[in-house]
Structures are given as structure tokens and as C-alpha cells.
Design a protein that fits this description.
The chain is an alpha/beta fold. The protein is built from eleven helices and eight strands.
Length: 240
């Protein structure tokens, strides 16, 4: 079993340290994210190097046209399995939003943490810079916080996750891509410091809480000009 990013797999295939000719199963996970990150050409190249008789499985939160094209080119009469949105967001997750001015967000975050006193919190931001700034501010104010994004080394990310799972870090501030890998059962709160850029991202984010039958709280900060984005999330995620 070989698990890897497209670029690293192509590197090994090119150098001859990995052969794809005997691969019988190919799994493409987070296909829509790979599209956004510009990996589609790499994925096509890898698939073309494997045998045609392989089994192919493609997992994607959304099905953009480019992903559908890949499925048609590289999959033979595939079975499509779709999960209803109402089944994705469990009723154990309480969803709320606060209308907040951009300059007040960090103060609202600390007030919320003080009032709620959550067991374990995941805070989502748009950018790596924002993750660094928010986590640094929380640490400066005495909160037990850490940061997680793609610029950190693998060993640092693993160390951060181990601390979060073990309770040594109570608040983890992350980007969307890094946050998708967070699989911790007892996250009590997910806070969208920055509103998700699409409804599917919202579903992914809040799905980090309310796991294994537990209850969870999902809080989203919304600036006045982001009200239309909130309405779109409500409509697509079938929530209020």
C-alpha cells in the first residue's frame, strides 16, 4: 500500500523507485481539493501509468466538471454513491453565528472561549498568516493554543496533533487543508473565525465536532458584508 501526494508519487515513478504497472487499486481522496491545488495534471499522469484493469475509487466532497471528466476518462461504468447533506450534519451539532466586525473578531473569540470554557476547540482561518497571528495572540494572552497549516514540517504537524489529542493543547488554530486531517473524537467546539469560502467547506469544518454520538457546537463569525455567504451556506447545508 502506497499513500502519497501526487507530486511525490510522480517523483518516485520518474526515478524508478516506484513501479505502477502492478497497481490493482487506485484511490483518489479529496479530489476536489486536488483540483483547487492544481494537481489534476499530476493525477492524470499517474492514472495513465497504471494498468487499465485496475479498480479506481474517487472520493470528493463536491463534483466539479473537471472531476467528472476524470471519472469519465478513467473509470469504467462507475457506481456513484452520494451522501445526503442532511445525513452529513448530525443533529447533535448546535450551529450558531455571531455578526462581528472584522476588527473585533479576536476580542469576540477570547470572550467566547472564556464564557464557553470548551473542552477542546478547533478554530478555522482562511490563511496561514491568519493562523499564525491568531494562535500567537491566544498564546500571548495565556490560552493553551497551537497552530496547524501546510508550511509546518510533517514532524511538527504530527507533534501538534499528538498534543491536541492528549489535551496538552486545548485550542488548535488551523487552515482548511490542515484541518481536514484532524480526526479527534472529543472536539467540543468548532469556531469559524473566517466564514468558509463555500458551503461544502462549512460542512467539512463543523463535521470535526459532534462525533461518535457526542454533542458539539459550531460557531461562525460573520461580518456584515458576508450575510449573503451565510445565506448560501444555510441553503446548501439545509440548516438555519
Amino acid at each position: 500500500i502506497v499513500v502519497g501526494t501526487p507530486g511525490r508519487i510522480i517523483d518516485h515513478l520518474t526515478r524508478g523507485t516506484l513501479s505502477a504497472k502492478n497497481v490493482s487499486i487506485v484511490v483518489l481522496d479529496e479530489a476536489d481539493e486536488m483540483l483547487d491545488m492544481g494537481f489534476i495534471a499530476d493525477i492524470e499522469r499517474i492514472l495513465e501509468m497504471t494498468q487499465k484493469s485496475r479498480q479506481t475509487m474517487l472520493y470528493s466532497a463536491t463534483m466539479p466538471l473537471e472531476i467528472i471528466k476524470i471519472a469519465k476518462r478513467h473509470m469504467n461504468d462507475p457506481l456513484k454513491i452520494a451522501v445526503n447533506v442532511k445525513d452529513i450534519i448530525t443533529p447533535q451539532i448546535k450551529q450558531v453565528f455571531y455578526e462581528v466586525r472584522e476588527k473585533d473578531k479576536s476580542e469576540v473569540l477570547t470572550r467566547l472561549l472564556d464564557v464557553e470554557d470548551p473542552e477542546r476547540t478547533l478554530v478555522f482561518c482562511h490563511t496561514k498568516r491568519e493562523v499564525d497571528e491568531i494562535s500567537a495572540r491566544l498564546q500571548h494572552l495565556g490560552y493553551n493554543a497551537g497552530a496547524l497549516h501546510g508550511d509546518f514540517t510533517q514532524s511538527h504537524r504530527e507533534e501538534m496533533m499528538a498534543k491536541f489529542r492528549g489535551g496538552k493543547i486545548e485550542i488548535l488554530v488551523a487552515t482548511d487543508v490542515a484541518g481536514r486531517g484532524v480526526d479527534v473524537e472529543n472536539i467540543s467546539h468548532v469556531i469559524n473565525y473566517s466564514i468558509p469560502q463555500n458551503p461544502e467547506g462549512y460542512i467539512h469544518r463543523i463535521g470535526r465536532t459532534g462525533r461518535a454520538g457526542r454533542t458539539g457546537i459550531a460557531v461562525t463569525f460573520v461580518t456584515p458584508r458576508e450575510s449573503r455567504q451565510l445565506q448560501l451556506i444555510e441553503r446548501i447545508a439545509k440548516t438555519k
